[in-house]
Design brief:
The protein is mainly beta. The chain has a single domain, classed as Exo-inulinase, domain 1 (Jelly Rolls, Sandwich). About 5% of the residues lie in helices and about 35% in strands. The chain contains one helix and 13 strands; from the N terminus they run αβββββββββββββ. Strands 1, 3, 4, 6, 9, 10, 11 and 13 form an eight-stranded antiparallel β-sheet that branches. Strands 2-5-12-7-8 form a five-stranded antiparallel β-sheet, with no helix packed on it.
Length: about 210
Amino acid sequence: MKFYFAALTASLLIAGTASAQTEEGFTTLFDGKTFAGWQTATEHTNTWSIADGALVAHGDRCHLFYVGDEKPFKNFELKVEVMTEPHSNGGIYFDTHYQATGWPTNGFECQVNVSHSDWKKTGSLYDVANLGNTPAKDNEWWTQDITVQGSKVTVKINDVLVLEYTEPPGAQPGKTFTRKLAEGTFALQAHDPKSVVRYKNIRVKRLE
């Protein structure tokens, strides 16, 4: 894996830590400096780096999985600060499991895409509940807030509710991709070499 440890200014480090600590019940999943608790897929590991307190996806397809907690996440609220460069594509997976290669077959992808050619935009549950528009903007940080409680998923962008999805009774896993609420971990997506996506201040709160 290619590790770029760019120098962090004291203000960025303190601001990121304080932001997470002031949210009662949330646990920080990324320290802003190292890949501790995270594991890349075995393909194209040079795609991921760290710069200015953010995980940076820029390169061929490669997913970065959270492996810092052995207890699966089932009901939770996940918050991630995200910024895209124009025409970039990425994603935040939940209910997934570590996978060495390919697109994750388990779990849901909450889309990250403001101006990429794919019409499914930021906040979509990819190929489950899709949005054609998003309040997120390229070159600006936004907070992507994903809450799973029982059979319901809600997604907010900068505290604006953009999606509510309730899994229908009797929903079954698909033959290729298992898009069914269960439990698992989180993953961040590096989609393609032309996309540049940054993820930081990643935190989660387990819900009853």
